[in-house]
Design goal:
By secondary structure, this protein is mostly helical. The protein has one domain. The chain has helices spanning 6-27, 31-35, 37-56, 63-81, 102-148. The protein is elongated and about 70 Å long. Keywords: Membrane, Transmembrane, Transmembrane helix. The chain crosses the membrane at residues 12-31, 37-55, 67-87, 107-129.
Length: 149
Amino acid sequence: MGPLSNKAKYNILSILFIFIVVISWFMNIGWIRVFLAIPMIFHAIIFYFSNSFYHHNNYKNSKFMKVVNISFYCTYLLCNILLPDGGDVGDPVVFFGLINNKKLTDAAGIAAGLCLFANVVLMIVQILYTITIKERLKDESTQNREGAI
């Protein structure tokens, strides 16, 4: 078995990020995470597949799209790790249950919301870029076939 392709490396990275998020969710389990479990499962699935499709194309990516992709990874991780949660008793906790200071958890909640918004915007940009590239590659292959005839 040879070295891993770039697509395989990025798929492993996506799975690693999802795994870290799952650990964070179990360490901070509370009512917010219980109510948000289903939307966040869909978020993880969309995160994985949008990255998989983005890295699947062998088209040369612009520097801007590389920054978008790195930011997409970072905001996905941060919006989940910084989401404060708690149970019926005590202050909310954040960052794998290690921080339970009220002011810090409030700030982390705001940061998590901003990261989630940024993540959704970056996801839309990445999906639209992937669709555009797929269309461009399809057009180029059609032109190459017509030119060969």
